[in-house]
Amino acid sequence: MFKAPEHQVAGHLVSDGKLGPLVDDSGHFYKPLQGDGRGSKELAFFETFSSDTRVPDHIRRFFPVFYGSQLLEASNGSGLCLHLVLQDIVSGRINPSILDVKIGSRTWYPGATDDYIKKCLEKDGRTTTVSLGFRISGLQLYEGKESGFWKPGRKEVQSFTVDDVRSVLRRFVSSNSSIGNEKPDCSFAPSIYGGSTGILEQLLELKAWFEDQTIYHFHSCSLLILFDKESVLKGSTPAAQVKLIDFAHVLEGKGVIDHNFLGGLCSLIKFISDVLSDSNESSITANVESEKPHVCTCNGN
Amino acid sequence: MFKAPEHQVAGHLVSDGKLGPLVDDSGHFYKPLQGDGRGSKELAFFETFSSDTRVPDHIRRFFPVFYGSQLLEASNGSGLCLHLVLQDIVSGRINPSILDVKIGSRTWYPGATDDYIKKCLEKDGRTTTVSLGFRISGLQLYEGKESGFWKPGRKEVQSFTVDDVRSVLRRFVSSNSSIGNEKPDCSFAPSIYGGSTGILEQLLELKAWFEDQTIYHFHSCSLLILFDKESVLKGSTPAAQVKLIDFAHVLEGKGVIDHNFLGGLCSLIKFISDVLSDSNESSITANVESEKPHVCTCNGN
Asked: 20 to 30 A from B199, CA-CA: which of A214, A281, B37, B173?
């Protein structure tokens, strides 16, 4: 009944022999409580958040549904272990493409130990966290029946430069991503990033909330951006979704906005807008060029 | 002809015997080039920026006008020294109230020495820079003919807590700021922070630019917020102004937005909006209360 999630792109993997998450067939995601206190802090967050009437419904939909906690046999066979029971975000998606983007120009939180802060500062500087205000911490990209998924290893993802991030955000919505050195065509950009229900609009909705909310500070949280090409081709909605995950380091906002999250979110929004406007421009160019022969024929008559 | 500025609230002061800025009677501000390379970097910024056609005019007005550089006798008598010649922002203002707000949740810049970064990190954590995404680095507040200016010392300003910042932003637009423990009345909030040409609208205009511009990253820059009560009482415009100052650590944006500045700016905007909405609410309450006796009289008849 319980199995390792097929589409996990970051975090502890069951396959590493570590304590990892499990899923069932009914759309539940079981996340084991880590022993270092992070698990119980995440449980406490969900318990507070799920009954917090200050969070509007249109924002709540960006969070996985919380079903409580449950004792389960741990994935690594180490005995019974308490798990968070959450909505399995990718449940029902066939071959989903997924980006895990850790938001913020710093991932440490006030009150952490000096050692923890030092470790975070070092990693934040080494990745794009400091320069971009976010870093990609995992991804999988479905390229098609033949080539399957592009799912770079953890080390490769952690070494992404600013240009790599720019390129991944293009490849993510391209139909020719599997073809070696070809320039990503961004052909899915208008339907995935664009449109009234697309990724950009969802991110802008989140941004508007973050400009105002002073309830929570989401340290070291990720945005999961996902879609499946089948839904896009069929035209089913929502083709693309944004979800927040990983709440072990959420602290009270105490009347201050989460400027660290907001700054990083704005940076990601700008990157995605750039892909979208580039793809709009190139489709305009393509249209102009495809009209040329037509004009010529008319002149020829 | 040259004299020490009357209304400087932060930075090196001539009165410390240090090399400080000078002003003249024609609205010019002379800023000596510091020997540690910061001065020449700031000069280079102004030379690039002043001819940068990518900066729209409605944004350029947030920057002091740059008139070039000039050799002048240094304020501390140490001989001839190159000075930036800038617009004197407070020229023509009588008894201006001024806030110097250093924007960003980090003040260090990529490429700085380890020692410099360490010093910044320490100060950023000790002040409200990390928690708020900005810190007040100087202020003067004109209280009236009798009490003159409230201009707390550097040490006092550097020890401002989050609550102090909240309180200063209220006192800044209050008519009873000089009266000991009385709650700031925020009576100038609607005319200084609010309105179509007020501080909030100006900050929102800057914010819109920062959401899009990827040309410059403004590390360790300040926003100067200033007004004079005389202009407010007379109804002359602009009663209040926002200006960016201190450009020694501006770096190229390289296609990335300045998420550090933007996050801090959004945080300041939220604080100022809060003052404004509180003052609107209290004026509604005041109106309701002042109507009460009137209603009673009617009922009594």
From this structure: A214
Residue A270 lies in a domain: yes
Same domain as B108, residue B66: no
Name the minimum distance, in Å, from the CA of A243 to any CA of chain B: 21
Nearest CA-CA distance, residue B245 and chain A, Å:
21
Closest chain B residue to A213, measured at CA:
B270
The mean pLDDT value of chain A amounts to: 90
When CB atoms are compared, the residue of B133, B256, B269 closest to A267 is: B256
Domain extent for B165:
96-283
Q: Where are the beta strands (DSSP E) in A55-158?
A: 66-73, 80-87, 96-103, 134-144, 148-150
Domain boundary residue, one of B39, B62, B87: B87
Confidence tier at B296 by pLDDT (50, 70, 90): very low
B274-294 pLDDT tens trace: 999 998 887 766 655 544 443
- CB contacts of A130 in chain B (<8 Å) are 110
Range list of H helices, A15-99: 38-50, 57-60
A65 and A179 in one domain?
A: no
A236-258 confidence digits (pLDDT tens) = 777 899 999 999 999 999 999 99
